[in-house]
Amino acid sequence: MYGWRARLGVLVPSANMATEPETNLLTPRGVSVHYHRTEFRGGGLKELEKAETGMLDAIEPLMHVQPSAIAISGTALSFVGGPESDKKLIKEIQKKYGDIPATTTSTAVIEALNRFDAKKVVIATPYMEEVARAAAKFVEGNGIEVLGFNWRNKKTSLEISDISLAELPEMVEEVEVPESDVILISCTGLHTIEAIESLEKKFQKPVVTSNQATMWHLLRLTKVSDKIEGYGQLFKQS
Predict the structure, then answer these.
(1) pTM value > 0.85
(2) Dihedrals φ, ψ of 175, to 5°?
(3) Do both 129 and 199 map to the same domain?
(4) Which of 25, 43, 153, 218 has the greatest number of beta carbons closer than 10 A?
(5) What gap in Å lies between CA 114 and CA 75, rounded to an integer?
């Protein structure tokens, strides 16, 4: 049967075009992933705060498949409230739906950075400036120094999806410094997964991306620790 090892439920922003195909590439045999969408087409902090209010109810249809674990995909959706807002959201999920293993993309990103024992990072983003600043504040609020970050002022998820893999090295190069331990590329709407290994080779350090970290953490929550080749050093970590 499908999902005999684990069934994963993922809540996706409504205009996101990257999470499902990237997550599918990272799904081991015996694991099934089931998706539902919540209203969010992109925007700044006001739009993010509005989207956050409907997420808990949007999870309910995912519970119909009795998932082994739940993730809220969307980095900004879970860091918009600042440090600890992601943990508060997880507690609210578990209060409403029972003590199910749960994560958010922001939680997963911090877990991934901690797995590399990262003390200093740089962050490349396609966000609007105010959202990029909120991302840096969230990471620093979790005890990791941000040496630099950027933004592309892309307002909608569809605009973000137009950024090609070929543009990622330039995005990273703008912020990368030798002192960083890990490069973080933040945004689940950004196509990154097939560029991770080439970026790690170019910059000679681990690269963590939003969809990659979300799936890695979801699998680890369900005790699936397969090492998957081709998608960066993170998936070689247990």
Answers:
(1) yes
(2) -115, -20
(3) yes
(4) 218
(5) 17
- Rounded CA-CA distance 217/195 in Å is 20
Q: Are residues 152 and 218 in the same domain?
A: no
User: CA 66 to CA 81: how far, in whole Å?
Assistant: 29
1 in a structural domain: no
pLDDT in tens, 118-149: 999 999 999 999 999 999 999 999 999 999 99
Asked whether residue 51 carries a pLDDT value surpassing 60, the answer given is no
Q: What's the CA gap between 159 and 145, in Å, rounded? A: 29
Nearest CA to 134 among 73, 76, 56? 76
pLDDT at 37: 87
146 and 187 fall within a common domain: yes
In a domain, 185, yes or no: yes
Q: What is the pLDDT of residues 67-105, one digit of tens each?
A: 999 999 987 777 777 788 889 889 989 999 999 999 999
Cα gap 13→23, rounded to integer Å: 14
Q: pLDDT per residue over 202-233, tens digit each?
A: 999 999 999 999 999 999 999 999 999 999 99
Q: Which domain holds residue 63?
A: 6-105+212-236
Length of the chain as a residue count = 238
**What sign does the dihedral 93-189-19-218 (CA atoms) show?**
negative
Question: How many structural domains does the chain have?
Answer: 2
Close Cβ partners of 165 (under 8 Å, ≥ 6 residues apart): 191, 192, 194, 195
| CATH number of the domain to which 198 belongs | 3.40.50.1860
Q: What is the pLDDT of residue 40?
A: 62
Q: Is residue 116 part of a domain?
A: yes
CA distance 89 to 84: 9
